[in-house]
Design goal:
Belongs to the leucine-binding protein family. InterPro entries: Kinase-like_dom_sf, Leu-bd, Peripla_BP_I, Prot_kinase_dom, Protein_kinase_ATP_BS. This protein is α/β, with parallel strands linked by helices. Among the domains are: 2-142, Phosphorylase Kinase, domain 1, CATH 3.30.200.20; 146-340, Transferase(Phosphotransferase), domain 1 (Orthogonal Bundle), CATH 1.10.510.10; 584-709 and 800-813, Rossmann fold, CATH 3.40.50.2300. Helices cover 39% and strands 16% of the residues. The chain has 23 helices and 25 strands. Helix 3 packs antiparallel against helix 8 and helix 13 packs parallel to helix 22 (736-754). The longest helix has 36 residues, at 342-377. It is globular.
Length: 815
């Protein structure tokens, strides 16, 4: 099985343990081989699987050796924005506050709330890179076997009204208990903090906002990461003006409308109001209850969960001034003296409308028709307005990085909201403010440039297709962001130079995801929008192959990163262009390295049924035979540790001197580091996909690994591209995915310049097909061969090695 190091700064957090490792009592002193931290907490809790992470630390599924049961371990880290060490007295105060809040959390006992079993603090490892984190704090809780509502929603689609009413009733009973009996406010109710047990019972998880708040004593409330998730949190909570029992009711209602509509919560908030009713028809009573729970002002909401339960049961004759026994609001910011019965109020309002305002209603209807006609003549700037997975600025596609404070991220939300309302001036103000605090966000940079392009009128529209994972806790979006940085870099330069005759570049971001069955549907949607002239993007060879038929004969696609060789097994039409040289170039460089090192015997570990991996394996084998090397073993790997260990055993038995990795990114993330660390004196080779930070941080010898990539930053004076990257992103440490995305966008821009004044899809295709077509790239010209693939020119493609835990260029690869 796999166990996890809980050191937040560990360079190699995953440690393999033999299957026979069962009796933890006999292994209480096992330590992480990378940082020396004990892998068993308090000699009883063994972290087995990381299941979440956030601004305060990590969450692990773990094993309690004493009670012989599964549990959840939450590791929390003190926060200090000025990065100065906490004094000993401050640490003592934090420790005392943590214990007080943890004890209160332990006293919460409800059948739908995971029980807190234990809490403790441990010293951080002595080699911790952040000295002020001298203590790490832990909560140990009951493990709930089930699925969070966000995952359930993604799998099944929107919930029916009866399902939502039933779930709402369950959760209101939980809130009634914590509010009335424990005087506790959750503060962060959302889809991902609700788990449905296998028996159907809903559990409300992640209690601990008060605990977390005690771990950031010097941080103002408006910058606190314990203030909840922005779009689910009510206004008073985000503003730090007080938190009430009704604040939880607001967040619960926001959760319910996501379930009812099946839409991302960002799509349901527009012009500072909830617009969820546009997407679903529900019973008027339920709709009014949810709208009242979502009221902007706390005093306009229900006072208690009990009042909502009563309203749901149809008993609407509430006494607005009565409060459940023991219930009280934890703030003096607002005066709760009058709360109206929204249901009876709505009935009176309906009668008044019928008697007095019907004529006015007819006038308004006429105005609405006029507005509709105006909209048809002047449609929204975004071609996929309110469509999930698409955004030109009106929705945030990449989830918030937990390392970014809520108060900072709120400006991105405000900018996106203003964009969706067509208030581009205001969007620019908020997005600039956000980027001033978080410079390295390419999505926000693109939205800022799009807002400027929209104001300039008649922009040149291009779709930017990247693989975005919409759940930050279950995957990384580093690949999508690396690609977007390349796109945004060119867009920023192009628009600052006033584009072409004042027409600026406008990028519509499209999330292709990683699911093959959705890629063609998304491609069909893009191809149907005539305003979009072309597409840049598609990360994998599999994804571009799946999407290609939708664009054939219609519009061009320039892929930055697809490298599978075009042949009978991998076919692409003439409308697909690619700026990364194919796998034959990478295979040639890798085998030439073997020749220089006098390495003969090779084993190939490959991923079956994946286009890039199959192509790389084939090309590598061809070049191995060409240079008279020996292929001694071929071994398939999907994602199992057992598969990897079996392949390593076979490679050693055949005396392999080299192991070639032909994996997708997914399998590389899982298997590459393990192979490198368990392969002893065997040299490891790979192309593109093992190029991850976790590999560079694995403490491997200099001559152990070589990876062929399309570009790597210079070792001497920075190039123009790197200098501009420092200015734009605050760092020149960009990688090959960004560089190739830059080259793809430069090729698209050059084609647009060549068809100046006649912007059609066909003209764009013809420009790219011209024999003299050439665009400036990061290190070499972008020129295409007859197939639409990039010509192999000097300066494209290098081998990198690891030195001092960083990838650097192997200068012997220049040839």
């Amino acid at each position: 099985m796999k166990i996890y190091c809980t050191n937040p700064n560990c360079r190699y957090p995953e440690n393999e343990v033999p299957d026979e490792f069962r009796n933890l009592r006999n292994h209480q002193q096992r330590y992480c081989s990378s940082c020396g931290m004990t892998l068993i907490l308090k000699t009883r809790y063994l972290p087995k699987e990381q299941i979440g992470w956030g601004g305060f630390g990590k969450t692990f599924k773990a094993w309690d050796a004493h009670l012989q049961q599964q549990c959840v371990v939450k590791q929390l880290q003190p926060r200090n924005t000025n990065r100065n060490p906490f004094s000993q007295s401050e640490l003592e105060s934090i420790k005392k506050s943590f214990e007080e809040e943890a004890r209160a959390l332990r006293d919460i006992k409800h059948e739908q709330i995971p029980q807190l079993y234990d809490y403790f603090e441990l010293p951080a490892p002595s080699d911790s890179q952040e000295e002020f984190r001298k203590e790490l704090f832990y909560l140990v809780q009951e493990y709930v076997q089930g699925e969070t509502l966000d995952k359930e929603l993604n799998n099944k689609g929107r919930f029916s009204e009866p399902e939502v009413v039933q779930d709402l009733g369950q959760l209101l009973n939980v809130l009634k208990y914590i509010h009335e009996k424990r005087q506790v406010i959750h503060r962060d109710i959302k889809l991902s903090n609700i788990i449905r047990h296998e028996n159907g019972t809903l559990y409300l998880i992640d209690f601990g906002a008060a605990v977390k708040r005690k771990l950031e004593p010097k941080i103002p409330v408006e910058q606190s990461m314990a203030m909840g998730t922005p779009i689910f949190a009510p206004p008073e909570q985000l503003a730090g003006k007080g938190i009430f029992f009704s604040s939880d009711l607001y967040s619960l209602a926001a959760t319910c409308i996501c379930l009812l509509t099946g839409r991302n919560v960002n799509e349901l908030w527009n012009q500072n109001r909830w617009i969820w009713r546009e997407y679903v028809n529900v019973n008027d009573n339920l709709a009014e209850i949810l709208d009242r729970m979502l009221s902007y002002q706390p005093e306009d909401r229900y006072e208690s969960a009990e009042q909502v339960i009563t309203a749901l049961s149809g008993q609407t004759s509430l006494n607005p001034n009565s409060k459940p026994s023991g219930a009280r609001e934890k703030s003096q910011e607002f005066d709760f003296t009058t709360i109206r019965d929204s249901t009876s109020y709505s009935l009176r309002l309906n009668r008044l409308i019928k008697k007095l305002f019907l004529p006015i209603g007819l006038v308004l209807l006429g105005s609405a028709i006029a507005l509709l006609i105006n909209w048809s003549l002047h449609p929204p700037i975004c071609d996929f307005q309110k469509k999930s997975g698409f955004s030109c600025g009106e929705a945030i596609l990449i989830p918030q990085n937990p390392r970014i404070a809520e108060a900072i991220f709120a400006n991105k939300i405000r900018g996106s909201t203003a964009f969706g309302q067509g208030d581009f001036n205001q969007a620019i103000v908020y997005l600039k403010k956000y980027l001033a605090s978080n410079q390295n966000d390419p999505e926000a940079r693109i939205y800022l440039n799009n807002a400027k392009a929209a104001m300039a009128k008649n922009p040149l529209k291009i779709a930017a297709a990247v693989p975005i994972i919409d759940d930050q806790l279950n995957g990384s979006n580093d690949i999508a962001e690396q690609m977007l940085r390349g796109f945004a870099h060119v867009q920023d330069n192009f628009n600052q130079n006033q584009g072409i005759d004042g027409r600026l570049l406008f990028l519509e971001i499209v999330s292709t995801g990683w699911q093959k069955n959705k890629i063609k549907q998304i491609a069909d949607a893009i191809a149907s929008k005539e305003n979009i002239l072309g597409v840049i993007g598609y990360y994998t060879s599999d994804s571009i192959q799946e999407a290609a038929p939708s664009y054939d004969g219609k519009m061009v696609v320039i892929s930055p990163t697809s490298t599978a060789v075009r042949d009978s097994a991998f076919k692409l039409n003439n409308y697909i262009f690619r700026v990364s040289p194919d796998n034959s170039a990478a295979a040639e460089k890798l085998v030439k390295f073997m020749v220089r090192q006098n390495l003969i015997k090779t084993a190939i570990f490959y991923e079956p049924n994946e286009s890039f991996a199959a192509s790389l394996k084939k090309e590598f084998e061809n070049v191995v035979f060409k240079y008279r090397r020996q292929l001694v073993n071929e071994c398939p790997v999907i994602q199992s540790t057992t598969e990897v260990l079996n392949c390593l055993r076979e490679a050693k038995e055949t005396n392999a001197e080299v192991i070639m990795l032909a994996f997708s990114d997914k399998v590389s993330r899982i298997a590459a580091t393990l192979i490198i660390n368990q392969s002893e004196n065997i040299t490891i080779l790979g192309a593109d996909t093992p190029y991850f930070e976790s590999v560079s941080q694995a403490n491997i010898p200099v001559d152990k690994l070589r990876i062929a990539v399309r570009w790597h930053r210079s070792n001497s004076a920075n190039s123009k591209f790197e200098q501009e990257s420092v200015k734009l992103w605050g760092t020149g440490d960009v990688n090959w995915r960004t560089a190739m995305s830059y080259d793809a966008t430069m090729a698209m821009v050059e084609a647009l310049k060549r068809i100046q004044g006649n912007y059609t899809r066909q003209k764009l295709y013809e420009a790219l097909n011209e024999r003299d077509f050439s665009a400036d790239g990061v290190t070499a010209k972008v020129e295409f061969n007859d197939l639409g693939d990039r010509k192999s020119l000097p300066g494209i493609g290098v081998l990198v090695k690891v030195e001092n835990n960083r990838f650097i260029v192997d200068k012997t690869s220049y040839n």
